[in-house]
Design goal:
The protein has 484 residues and is an alpha+beta fold. 36% of the residues lie in helices and 21% in strands. The chain is built from 13 helices and 15 strands. It has helices at 6-14, 36-46, 77-80, 92-104, 146-150, 173-202, 206-222, 248-258, 262-280, 325-341, 345-355, 360-372, 439-451; strands at 2-3, 22-29, 55-58, 68-71, 81-85, 114-122, 126-134, 239-247, 290-297, 311-318, 380-385, 393-394, 397-405, 414-421, 424-432. The strands form three sheets. Strands 5-6-7-2-13-12 form a six-stranded mixed β-sheet, with helices on both faces. The chain has a six-stranded mixed β-sheet with strand order 8-15-14-11-9-10, with helices on both faces. The relative contact order is 0.17.
Length: 484
């Protein structure tokens, strides 16, 4: 049996009834919809390309050993590919509401940790596939999941034929115990011996170490900025999910005109969305930030297609208290340049490597505690996954668009995923249902944020950004917005 990596196991352990830890997407296709039988046959034919999708997670009492993968002897494809319909008339709003309910449901941990929902009844004769896969199986940029291999590059691709499959029998109890003991002894040693190599690769010179230390000082300073309070707090089991789109070509025009990277521009647009949200809540003050966890892929060229998580992360302050959009972009550009030039992602990656020394029981307890303890430092997650610039098809039907889903966590009420396909960028906003009824303000604000950064902004100004309130007596009272 293959055992989980430290990071994969962490994603597995932190899940509970209010925090389903799957990532996903909604792929929208032109009509007419295929039959469920044809789609089921296609899924069955593609499964050999992703063996993990016919495997279940095996754990031991008290988490004595790391979770492991084993073939599901009772695998049934029909359980994982579901069939449903959007209520008439099948508008985008009804599609989003149905998708939010589906995304809120936990995956069955007794079965392979994925689902796909075939949805019919969408306006214009269109149809969709919602995919859900547990974060312990793959990261956003891994590339080897079932939905990836489902796609064809032309509408007339040859349809594959399903082949028979027999699950590998699981190991005997004594063999499993012996393997677990061996892994418990050798795994920490392998992690320990890998750390010096990792540090030499990432921080191999005195200059690298100095830059990293300087970056730590800047990161610590940014943690002192006052952050929005209403974005943290308890969450329930239900979700709201919204999306908005933009032109990738227009985003690149902004990048050329204003400087920075595409990701800098997207973060600036998201900053405007949070600014509008906090202004509507009466919380906007000068100097306020929304602190975001920004995942960064550390997947090497030789790791493409590896079915595991290969990510690190940095913390970035979204300057929502800054009224000028160009100044917001400049602040984000300088901050992200500093995080990259001082290799701050090394810190989170090293921490993950160090956690590999811990016994699985301690890793499980620590992961749950870390995610459940209320913390005011991080208010959101913003993750960007580049997609293909060429058209994709399933059973001859063109995929018109794809909208990403990323989970929220304890004390973290909003997360945002970004995905590009053809010339469109999609922002998928996930939020706690009860505490974020105003999710539409955030989604609409992202569009306004891109518009106000456009090259023609001087001649055609976008809708004015609301000014931040000056801190007065009310803002310094207990529980007032802007207070850390």
């Amino acid at each position: 049996m293959e055992r989980m990596s430290t990071l994969d196991a962490g994603f597995f352990f932190v899940e509970h009834e209010n925090v389903p830890m799957h990532i996903g997407s909604l792929a929208l296709f032109e009509g007419p919809a295929p039959t469920y039988a044809d789609l089921l046959q296609l899924f069955a034919a593609k499964l050999p390309l992703v063996p993990r999708y016919r495997q279940v997670v095996r754990t031991t009492p008290l988490q004595l050993f790391r979770p492991a993968w084993a073939d599901d002897v009772d695998f049934e494809i029909g359980y994982h590919l579901r069939h449903s319909a959007v209520p008439p008339p099948g508008s985008d709003e009804q599609l989003r509401n149905l998708a939010a309910r589906i995304f809120a449901q936990r995956l069955d941990r007794a079965r392979p940790l994925w689902e796909a929902w075939f949805l019919e009844g969408i306006e214009g004769g269109r149809w969709a596939i919602i995919s859900k896969v547990h974060h312990c199986m793959v990261d956003g940029i891994g590339g080897t999941d079932l939905m990836t291999v489902m796609f064809d590059l032309s509408p007339d691709a040859v349809r594959p034929v399903p082949v028979s499959w027999e699950p590998e029998p699981g190991p005997a109890v004594l063999s499993q115990l012996a393997g677990g003991v061996h892994d418990a002894v050798t795994w920490p040693l392998r992690q320990l011996t890998a750390v010096p190599t990792f540090l030499m690769q990432r921080l191999g010179s005195a200059a690298d170490l100095r830059d990293f230390g300087r970056g730590l000082t800047g990161s610590a300073r940014r943690l002192t900025a006052p952050s929005a309070r209403s974005l943290n707090g308890p969450i329930g089991p239900h979700r709201r999910w919204a999306w908005t789109t933009a032109s990738l070509s227009e985003v690149k025009q902004v990048r050329h005109a204003r400087g920075g990277t595409v990701n800098d521009v997207l973060l600036a647009a998201i900053t405007r969305g949070f600014r509008d949200l906090l202004d509507a809540r009466g919380e906007l003050v000068d100097g306020l930030v929304v602190r975001s966890l920004v995942p960064i892929s550390v997947r090497g060229q030789n790791e493409q297609g590896l079915i595991t998580n290969r990510v690190s992360a940095v913390l970035a302050n979204l300057p929502v208290g800054e009224p000028d959009p160009l100044r917001r972009l400049a602040l984000l550009r300088d901050q992200m340049d500093d995080l990259k030039s001082t290799d701050q992602a090394v810190g989170a990656q090293l921490l993950t490597e160090m956690l590999g020394f811990a016994a699985p029981t301690l890793l499980a307890l620590g992961s749950r505690a870390a995610f459940r303890i209320p913390q005011p430092l991080v208010q959101t997650v913003t993750t960007n996954v580049p997609g293909p610039r060429f058209p994709l098809y399933i059973l001859g039907r063109l995929m018109e668009g794809a909208y990403p889903y990323v989970p929220i966590g304890d004390n973290l009420r909003i997360s945002i995923a970004i995905f590009s396909y053809l010339d469109r960028i999609s922002f998928g906003v996930t939020a706690d249902y009860s505490s974020v009824p105003d999710i539409g303000i955030l989604a609409d604000g992202i569009g306004r944020g891109l518009a106000e950064l456009g090259p023609a902004r001087e001649s055609k100004p976008a809708k004015p950004s609301p000014p931040a309130k000056r801190k007065g007596k009310a803002e310094h009272e207990p529980g007032a917005a802007g207070k850390q």
